[in-house]
Design brief:
The complex is a heterodimer. Chain A is mostly helical. Chain A has helices spanning about 1-30, 35-60, 70-90, 95-110, 130-160, 165-170, 175-205, 215-235, 240-265, 270-275. In chain A, helix 8 (about 215-235) packs antiparallel against helix 9 (about 240-265). Chain B folds into 4 domains: about 5-105, no CATH class; about 115-160 and about 430-480, Kinase associated domain 1, KA1 (TATA-Binding Protein, 2-Layer Sandwich), CATH 3.30.310; about 190-285 and about 400-415, no CATH class; about 285-400. Chain B contains 11 helices and 21 strands. Chain B has helices spanning about 5-10, 10-20, 20-40, 50-60, 60-70, 80-105, 115-120, 130-145, 170-190, 410-425, 460-480, and strands spanning about 120-130, 150-155, 155-160, 190-200, 200-205, 210-215, 225-240, 245-255, 260-265, 270-275, 275-290, 300-305, 305, 315-320, 325-335, 350-360, 365-370, 375-380, 385-405, 430-440, 445-455. In chain B, strands 4, 6, 10, 11, 12, 13, 18 and 19 form an 8-stranded antiparallel beta sheet that branches. A 5-stranded antiparallel beta sheet of chain B has the order 1-21-20-3-2. Chain B starts with a helix and ends with a helix. Classes of the chains: A mainly alpha, B alpha+beta. The interface between A and B is large, with 51 and 51 residues.
Chain lengths: ~280, ~475
Amino acid sequence: MGQIDWIMYLTATTFYALSSIVYIYCLVFKKEERISFAANSALAGLLFHGISIALRWAEVEHGPYISMFEILSGYAWVSVAIFLIAQQKFEKIRIVGFIVMPVSFLIMGAGSTYSRDIQLLPASLRSYWLIAHAAFANLAFGSILVAVGIAVLYILKERHSDTVDSFYDRLPQLKVMDELMYSFVASGLLFLTIMIGAGAIWANQTWGRYWGWDPTETWSLISWFVYGICLHLRMNMGWTGKKVAWLIIFSIFVLAFSFLGVGYVYGGLHADYLTS
Amino acid sequence: MNDKIMDFIRGKKIAAFFKSRKLAIVLILLIIIFSIIGTHIPQKSQLKLEVYNVWKTNHPTEAYYFEKLGLTGLFSSPIFIGLAGLLFINTLFCTRIMFSNAFRRLSNPQFQKKAYISGLENNMELRTEKEQKYIISVLNSVLKSGGYKLFKEKNCIVAEKNRFGVFGTSLFHVSILIIILAAVYGSLGRMEGDMRLIEGQTLSEDHGNYIFVNEGPFFYGNHQKFDISLEKFYTDYKDETGTPRGTAGKLVIKENGKKVKKDVVYSNNLMSYEGYTFLGNVYGLAPLLILNNPDGTVYSGSYITASDTDSSGRYVSSFEIGDTGLEGVLMVYMTAPLTSEITESGEVKQTPILFLKIFDRGNEIYDGKLRLNDTVRIYDKYLGYDRILGFYDIKYWSNFYIVKDAGTLIVYAGIGLITLSLMISRFMIPKRVWVEVIKDENSDATGIYIGGKADKFKFLYEDEYSILTNKIKERLQYGTN
């Protein structure tokens, strides 16, 4: 079984790579007609990836949230899934795959550099709250990655607003993209909140306190504040369009650092799980 | 006195400062900056004392200045608490305004006239020769079927959907206030401590029985003094489903000698009693060493708690033997000799082996190993005779982290409410449709002015609005009076 899930993982990674190349090709050469091929490749990758996760889950008897290999795999799968659902609903933003798919491909590549050894679930991690904590972290990252894709697209469209360009003209209006960014960031903030809440309850069960200013906890709060500021500026202080788009692009680095980088830089209680 | 001074005296300036939305941004940015500093500089509360001291020794200059500036305890420093306090006040002021606006909007539906309606992004003008009564009934039926609640005033209609969504943002802010208040309330009345229990031992929940205790200012003296016993310790506990749970301790709570609570405590399975939470953390072995007089009477003896400091499975401790002036160091571990029996659970029975050194005023007088029930003669040169030191028993001990924090459940309620409020804000978006029906003075025709907007995602609302207005148009076109 261990080999089959790995073959599925590599197949999924290959499809993600193919999808990424086609999306970038579509954007650079403005070939909208190839987007369906890119989306289908992403869907095929998602299916193989899903099978890979399911097989490993059955083998190791826990979800993708213990080792770095599993965690990264989870982030990539959820990001692609959210993107495919979003592009199904808002067809005009299908090209957002040029951000989501390469990032997912890179995450898969990074994941493959970590050990795939089976790690038994330590007693401290046998909690439904941990499952919720990890699942909502994936959802938050996926939603915000789609928002970043839309933000980049917004900036590109705005730059071409003075020129007649049928490719960019076919994208949604700027004001619609602005609202879509807002919508995905608002969903991301909701998922982040549930992630932090579930983590707090789990921490209380495991360590006897719901909050301890552990570096990863602190950075999660920082990310939460950053996205809170994004929404606050947009709702109450008239920040829309390009300014918010840049803020969203910048903010994903904060989120990625808090999810994946803090353990390496600062250590802390989460570091045992988030670095190996 | 000029107006500015009067405003200041009336508190208007202060109120304006505290309800400022910019202030919220500034405070959050400052909290972010301090949080980043707090993760970068080692925090005393985060690290074990020995780890912190190693950092301090390696970075004496930084440690000196950081400690002087209070940056090594940043999250409990006055400046950080002050920022959180200001954010609390700012949120409080903003929440009050948001709630009053939300209530006002909910209780007073705003009717709008043609001029306003025509200025909306989503607006439409229809003309029909149908009777006004029929027009109203069509509007009523279509808007109601779309989930709108209608309010009428003369020839104006305002239809509202997801009306209670206006409370989303206010509730979000209330949740933040609740979480901050609960955290403060919890920490002031909080008690946390480590109690070390040897298997079979009972200790009262009292200040003096904790090996470490931290009490908030409102807790002091509130210990409940019930009895806590560690009935059994398990190194590899399996629950009723056979799932391995790691180390576990069966705790029994007694009040006036009566058992009132019993549970096996392991990771993610805490025991709660009267607001106290019990978690097992460190554990170790405790060999029983007894020093006998030459006539066989007991001179001194106790279980010595030994810890596995390097996760090697070997437990070490240093100790004093009563008032003899003798000191000892020991290392003990469980081992299975070749002759070991197999226990009922199918595991090899393990027995302890104890490596012991005894010092008399700094001079080593014994170095050897003991099995259970072994004894050794210890010569006391001051008294001029031998005593017998025996290794008679061994038990496990475990530290239980015991916490009482009345704020925890309120924090959980705040987390629940903040999630709910974000769901309301995200998915329950208030939408309004305004209609004014104006009968032409010079003809039989009637003009219907319809406009709608959503509080958020205005452009994404266009589709829903189009469906509604198309239905209205269709019904007015093909329907009969």
